[in-house]
Design goal:
Layout lengths: L7 E8 L3 H11 L4 H10 L4 H18 L10 E10 L3 E6 L5 E6 L2 E9 L4 H7 L3 H6 L12
Helix pairs in contact: 2-3
């Protein structure tokens, strides 16, 4: 049985962002190195990127401050990042003819796990996110249509 690789995580709970919108942001950083993920989040124009960036900074700070691990923040990789649905706050808005319309204020829980980065290119190929994995994929060519 192999020893489990230690991972460090950070949570942000009850964030006032829709889970669907936060998942669109988190999908961009999953599997990337921490410096690359920070750059992606810094230039992303979605409001949820700011919240995800705070969770990423917290996960890196947790990894650096753990006395048993002593990891360097620039050598870490975002091993897992996911967004779970939180409670929905239900409000009502008055509409015409005495009717009401629901307003759903959705919340989410953001979790990010970081691990030490892989020094070999074999791990990069297995995750499918590195430049070596992109170079290994064959490029598709469009077939020309032949007039009959």
């Amino acid at each position: 049985m192999t020893a489990a690789r230690p991972d460090v995580r950070a949570h942000a709970k009850f964030v006032h962002v829709s889970p669907r919108k936060a998942r669109l942001v988190v999908d961009h950083i999953r599997g990337r190195s921490v410096p690359e993920a920070r750059t992606v989040l810094a230039f992303m124009q979605r409001a949820a990127a700011h919240e995800v960036e705070k969770v990423l900074k917290s996960a890196v700070a947790n990894a650096e401050s753990n006395p048993n691990l002593r990891w360097n923040g620039d050598d870490l990789v975002v091993a897992a990042a996911y967004v779970d649905e939180g409670p929905t706050i239900k409000r009502w808005q008055a509409r015409a003819r005495g009717r009401m319309s629901p307003i759903m204020k959705r919340t989410c829980h953001i979790t990010i796990k970081v691990e030490p980065g892989a020094e070999t290119s074999s791990d990069t190929k297995s995750t499918g996110t590195g430049s070596a994995a992109a170079a290994a994929k064959p490029k598709r060519r469009l077939k020309k249509k032949v007039a009959a």
